[in-house]
Amino acid sequence: MQPRAVSFPLRMVAQDVALALFVTVMQVQGTVAKVAIEGAPRPLADFGNLGYALLMVSGLALAVRRRWPVPVFVTTALASVVYYGLDFPDGPGWLGLFVALYTLTAYGDGRRSLVVAGVGTTVLAVWWLVAAADIEPRAAIGWVFFRIGASVMSAALGESVRSRRVIAAEAQARAELAERTREEEARARVDAERLRIAREVHDTVAHAIAIINVQSGVTAHVLDRRPEVAREALQAIEQTSSRALREMRAILGVLRDDNDGRVPYPGLEQIDELAAKARDAGLDIKLEQTSPAAPLPSAVGSAAYRILQESITNVIRHVGPTRVTVALHPGIDALEIRVTDEGRARPAGGPAGPHLPAQHPTSTGSSAKPGRGILGMRERCQLLGGELEAKPTPGGGFEVMARLPLAPTGSRL
After folding, report:
1. In which band, very low, low, confident or very high, does the pLDDT at 396 lie, cut at 50, 70 and 90?
2. Alpha helix stretches (DSSP H) within 223-270
3. Alpha-carbon gap, residue 287 to 271, rounded angstroms
4. Cα-based distances in Å from 305 to 3, 42, 116, 235, 238
5. How far apart are CA 123 and CA 35, in angstroms?
6. Residues 376, 310 contacting (CB under 8 angstroms)
7. Which of 18, 42, 288, 330 has its CA 20 to 30 A from that of 3?
8. Strands 323-330 and 334-341
9. Is 47 helix (H, G, I), strand (E, B) or coil?
10. What Å distances lie between residue 70 and 6, 16, 23, 62, 64, CA to CA?
11. In this structure, are residues 400 and 377 in contact, taking their beta carbons and an 8 Å threshold?
12. Is 373 helix (H, G, I), strand (E, B) or coil?
């Protein structure tokens, strides 16, 4: 076992030095007092005051007990072997050994420190019993058994303290890990909420801007020739922007509402209003809707509304006035959605009006990379365990098909 290269605070070093001085004084003074009362077979001054030196060494070694527990234990054990082997007087000279044994197991590494303590105690016990073979009076051998028992108790006490310290450290580590996990989960929930709000804002703003773009184009086209049509287009712009602002307040109000007074998100109940806004933008909307046998889950209804909104917005933005069929068929276990447009309607032999946008981003002749709107719709489906397919139709139009399970397997953001 290698010496522990651990740095201890000055306060702990001072405590160990004070303890070493105290134990040294107790061992020397206690032994001298006992000899003065009971006498001793060999004076402490024999062999050049070797008895005093052994008592002082075993006590002063405790000053570095926490930094080098094994060498300190070995030092006190060897001092005890020599001390009792030379038949010096029995007294409180074992205090340093007991403290060293406690320190070895309390500040050791568990198994190896227990092995060292066990082997050392066994060797000391055998040596003490051999050295006391001819002790007189025989009753004095009880002190030998006291030293053996006290050594075992010191090692056991140190191991108990070490075990409790390890358990406390593990509990602290688990608490810190749990706290970090809670913080990470909280950050993940915040990120998910931000992503959800960003999607809601994108869908709301994109739909409103697409309608406003079409209506403003109509206004610019007919302002001089047909003022009444321009007035109607401007009114449609005002109504669309007002609706968009209301939805934005409902979405962003969650961020500032301390009383959790949340406004419900749009669902399929607003499908007629969505169709009306699309008709105002020039689309010929045909609804094919089957009443569900039971109310749809709110997450499914909201996702379906946003998919329809984004699909209609894409038609307004990339195609312009055309015929759109919206089909909603709730089944036993899933809601099926289909939005099909017939493509751009161009006047025969003439170009499109100046307000008509480009084609679908995934239609023939354009980039094959799907637009952000389609990716967002697909993500909404996947979060609920559903699937979405978007592709051009043979007649030049575009079709979006989605299937949303009525018992979602994911969690809506």
Report:
1. confident
2. 227-256
3. 9
4. 71, 102, 74, 24, 22
5. 27
6. yes
7. 18
8. antiparallel
9. helix
10. 14, 16, 18, 11, 10
11. yes
12. helix
Q: In the chain, what percentage of residues exceed pLDDT 70? A: 82
Residue type, 401: M
CA distances, 44 to each of 27, 76, 87, 216 (Å): 12, 17, 10, 113
Q: Kindly list the distances between the CA atom of residue 113 and the CA atoms of 80, 153, 251, in Å, as whole numbers in the listed order.
A: 20, 15, 64
CA distance 339 to 114: 76
Measuring CA to CA, which residue among 291, 295, 266, 124 is closest to residue 200?
266
Mean pLDDT score of the chain, rounded to an integer?
79
Token reading at 287: 């609804």
DSSP state of 148: H
Query: In angstroms, rounded to a whole number, what is the distance separating the alpha carbons of residues 150 and 143?
Result: 10
Kindly write down the DSSP assignment for every residue of 295-333, as one continuous string. PPPHHHHHHHHHHHHHHHHHHHHHT-S-EEEEEEEE-SS
Cα separation, 158 vs 202, whole angstroms: 65
Contacts of 286 (CB under 8 A, 6+ apart): 323, 324, 325, 326
Q: Identify residue 291 by its one-letter amino acid code.
A: S
**Entry pTM:** 0.48
Distance from C-alpha of 57 to C-alpha of 79, rounded to nearest angstrom: 7
Which pLDDT band holds residue 230 (cuts at 50, 70, 90)? confident
Could you tell me which residues are beta bridge partners of residue 284?
323
Torsion-angle region of residue 99: left (phi > 0), alpha (psi -120 to 50) or beta?
Answer: alpha
Distant-in-sequence, close-in-space partners of 315: CB < 8 Å, separation ≥ 6: 278, 283, 322, 324, 339, 341, 398
C-alpha–C-alpha distance, residues 243 and 247, integer Å:
6
Q: Which 3-state string (H, E, C) describes 80-121?
A: HHHHHHCCCCCCHHHHHHHHHHHHHHHCCCCHHHHHHHHHHH
Q: What is the pLDDT of residues 149-186, one digit of tens each?
A: 999 999 999 999 988 988 998 998 888 888 888 888 87
Task: Output the CA–CA distances (angstroms, integers) from residue 367 to 64, 200, 362, in the order listed.
Answer: 77, 26, 6
Average pLDDT over residues 291-307: 82
How buried is residue 111: exposed, middle or buried, by Cβ count under 10 Å (0-12/13-18/19+)?
exposed
